[in-house]
Specification:
By secondary structure, the chain is α/β, with parallel strands linked by helices. It has helices at residues 41-46, 114-117, 121-134, 151-162, 174-183, 196-203, 221-226, 250-255, 264-270, 272-287, 304-312, and strands at 2-5, 16-19, 29-38, 64-72, 84-88, 97-101, 105-107, 142-146, 166-171, 187-190, 209-214, 228-236, 258-261, 297-300, 320-323. The termini are close together. Bound molecules: NADP nicotinamide-adenine-dinucleotide phosphate. The site of NADP nicotinamide-adenine-dinucleotide phosphate has 25 residues, from helix 3, helix 4 and helix 9.
Length: 324
């Protein structure tokens, strides 16, 4: 079968389209014929040996896939050949066929195209895990999202709105705030350039934010902790700014507040059943037209290096998906 193969850890431009042996089905697993592979910034890191997981060479990148079950191993009730599915596989997705642990497989409704399903796991999975499991978001609460025009931020806006929250987006340009508003954010704050604590307080009638979904870290985080409401929750999602903030703990004591780590990939590994239920819910919302992920830009498998190069140069708006 054809696969994009990483043979050396010197970046996505050196991926090669190769013939590799087909996987053999194993107990507890299914083989998925891949139709689409969602791309993420982490796929560029893994081809440079800079990701938190370092697979043995040679390997194929590609963390999230959608396709059709081709065959089912022993001890896998409930799945059969021909079913449309999606899965988060961490790496190894950029192949015509992938062996997938059956616990990672989620059924895709007819109304959801492969290219959309393939791009949901990481961003929407993180938003579901962060906002629901870690943040215990309740309808009517206010959620501040940093990096609101990025992939993680856009999904957080979608899910927070779907769950009945009021969303305040934080982004670094007017254009990005417009993108956040188009996704459904109720209000926006330009940062850098604005006093985050005072502005969030002012926009919440002095109450503060119930949840901060922080994708950026750096200088935004401490003023946003200061802007938390009583019993507010800061969700630590990422450090896109590159700087890991240090927060004085007295701020938490004074507000009865919490800081919660959001490590979605580890949560999926430890509790695949909860992740599967989350993704079923997201897919259901997409199928019944109440959640509208942006339409992805598609690439052929042979163009995967080019697509990952765009991600690496941060020249991307919306989701990139390789189709097979
Ligand atoms: N915890 C988890 O399980 C999990 C899961 C998925 C992603 N993440 C993390 O979440 C973060 C955001 O991911 P993403 O997919 O949304 O990334 P993205 O699409 O590249 O967006 C990142 C946003 O961060 C902001 N930013 C601030 N300083 C930046 C800098 N120096 N370089 C690049 N961006 C900068 C930008 O918004 P402004 O210009 O508006 O500030 C940008 O829109 C990443 O750190 C990622 O690793 C974590």
């Amino acid at each position: 079968m054809r696969a994009m193969v990483c043979k050396r850890l010197d970046g996505p431009e050196h991926l090669e389209l190769r013939d590799v042996p087909e996987p053999v089905v194993a107990a507890g697993h299914v083989i998925v014929r891949v139709k689409a592979v969602g791309l993420n910034f982490a796929d560029t890191l893994i081809t440079r040996g800079k990701y938190q997981f370092k697979p043995e060479l040679p390997f194929s990148p590609g963390a999230e896939i959608a396709g059709v079950i081709e065959c089912v191993g022993a001890g896998v009730p409930g799945w059969s050949a021909g079913q449309r599915v999606m899965a988060y596989v961490n790496w190894g997705g950029a192949c015509e066929k992938v062996l997938v642990d059956a616990r990672a497989v989620v059924a895709v409704p007819d109304a959801v195209p492969d290219v959309v399903a393939a791009g949901l796991s990481v961003t929407y999975g993180t938003a579901m895990h962060g906002l629901i499991e870690r943040g215990r978001l309740a309808a009517g609460e206010t959620v501040v999202v940093t990096g609101a025009a990025g992939g993680a931020g856009q999904a957080a806006i979608d899910i927070a709105k779907r769950l009945g929250a009021r969303v305040i987006a934080v982004a670094s340009s007017r254009e990005k705030l417009e993108a956040a508003a188009a996704r459904g954010a109720d209000d926006g704050i330009l940062f850098p350039g604005t006093d985050l604590k005072e502005t969030v307080k002012a926009k919440t009638g002095g109450n503060g934010a119930d949840i901060v979904y922080d994708c950026v870290g750096g200088e935004a985080t401490e003023p946003l902790v200061r802007a938390l409401a009583w019993r507010g929750r800061l969700l630590v999602v990422g450090f896109a700014a590159g700087e890991i903030p240090k927060i004085p703990l007295n701020l938490l004591l004074l507000k009865g507040a919490e800081i919660s780590g959001v490590f979605w990939g580890e949560a999926v590994k430890r509790d695949p059943a909860t992740h599967a239920r989350s993704m079923e819910q997201v897919l259901g919302w997409v199928a019944n037209d109440t959640l509208h992920p942006s339409q992805p830009t598609t690439f052929a498998m042979a163009q995967m290096s080019e697509a990952l190069g765009l991600l690496e140069r941060r020249a991307v708006h919306g989701k990139l998906v390789v189709t097979l």
